[in-house]
Amino acid sequence: MDNSNHTHKINKILVANRGEIALRVMRSAREMGIKTVAIFSEADRNALHVKYADEAVCVGPPPSSESYLQMDKIIQVCHDLKVDAIHPGYGFLSENAVFAKKVTDAGIIFIGPSPEAIEVMGSKLAAKDAVSKYDIPMVPGTPKAITDVGAAKQRAEEIGYPILIKASAGGGGKGMRIVENAAEFEEQMNRAVSEAVSAFGDGAVFIEKYITSPKHIEIQVLGDTHGNIVHLFERECSIQRRHQKVIEEAPSAVVTPEIRRAMGEAAVNVARACNYYGAGTVEFIADENLNFYFLEMNTRLQVEHPVTEQITGVDLVKEQIKIAQGEVLSIKQDDLQIQGHSLEVRVYAEDPKNNFLPDIGKLTTYQRPQGAGVRVDDGFEQGMDVPIYYDPMIAKLVTFGKDRTQAIERMLRAIEEYQIVGIETTLGFCSYVLQHESFVSGKFDTNFVNKYFKPEVLDAHDLNEEAQQDEEKVAAALVNFLLEHKKDNNKPAQQATTTKSNWRKNRV
Ligand code: ADP
User: Fold this and answer.
1) What ranges in 314-445 are assigned the alpha helix state H?
2) Which atom of ligand 1 is nearest the CA belonging to 216?
3) Nearest-angstrom CA–CA distance, 407 and 344
4) Residue 392: cis peptide before it, omega within 30 degrees of 0
5) Annotated catalytic, 30?
6) Assuming Cys at both sites, which of 95, 152, 338, 367 could form a disulfide with 419, CB separation 3.0 to 4.6 Å?
């Protein structure tokens, strides 16, 4: 940790990413008077982040392994263009300790935590070990990699089934196996180890109690290089499909001020345990009684960071940049307050009626919603293709309201306004979730999609819309009739147009 008061002004940032997050980072840099450099693959030549940046360099062919993940090439671009700092966004190289070290060794500032913190938190077991000095609640389980299957089975018996076998190096919802009873323990264990070896090159696995109705709640933290750490409250991310988030909100509808304080303190301690600086997220799992347990720490900016920005008024990217410049955090814990409610829906190019399989194609119509309390972070324009090579997220639609009800109402209105034709998206699915009584009550968990969602519910949704359209057609015909009638009576003629847009028909 750097305890000196040196600050190093950043003049030019290279964003080692693409799409909405590259644009989002560049916008904050521009507001701070910092020049920006985009990198892009051959598939992204016409992408918005390339147009937005002050300079842009092609780093290779479409597959990310040949472009966005090319560490040495990216560092060379920094030398060539006199770049002082790299922002990695999320995904790609953002949690790669080797990259963070290479960047720092090349004399370039890495806008993120130290390589050591990335490394420790990149391993679930090392993370548990690092935080063990602090009083952080953990899911009952084994604290170390399992070497003796008999002893592990004994432990599983003590904890009580079902239990979860997890790969220490796992991520992105992969490398987990549920074991329902003792009879299947050995077999599942063998499978878990061989899967961990082939997927992550590391066979270390451990066990955890399987929380049957879990809520995924995470805390945003910010730390500087002088040892100051604050938390910016929670985000509720329990609406997931395939262990991946689709709708997030801040604050959670069910977290009380006492639980918030306790989770915040635990998160700050997790950050302290690895001398964390920069923006980070501490993830917890909570059971139906809101007992919460530490899951892992993500050592980067999260996709869902905008909901925290909306409720706190803090620009997290600007804070990341100021921390990387060596500045002392200007925010004190007591200054932070929750100022309203915010929701984010992830607009994926996926077909909810077909098991959320990615869909690709051209955005023949693409019109963003507007109006009070609406923020759209995206990287596309009408006429652009959604490429097959990368994450199928088109946009993040974020709303803000004085309370949860207003944020939900605004989101439903914004989803209605959003016009996307040419590909299937998760918008209709999100609209269904937001109106579901379980979501509205706040009493939902990560099983929501499995429990309540069937493709047919979207058909029912479409039928309702069609019925509504029919009613609108009848109303329009009536207006026409009345106006015609007026004309017959030699009253001044009025324009009898039906201005209703056909978004309902076109929306996918
Ligand atoms: P990853 O690194 O793959 O994201 P996490 O440990 O963050 O793995 O878990 C991802 C998701 O898996 C959580 O959001 C939750 O839905 C589920 N999960 C993880 N641990 C447990 C557990 N002990 N019991 C029940 N569900 C769990």
Assistant:
1) 316-324, 404-417, 427-435, 437-441
2) 14
3) 10
4) no
5) no
6) 367
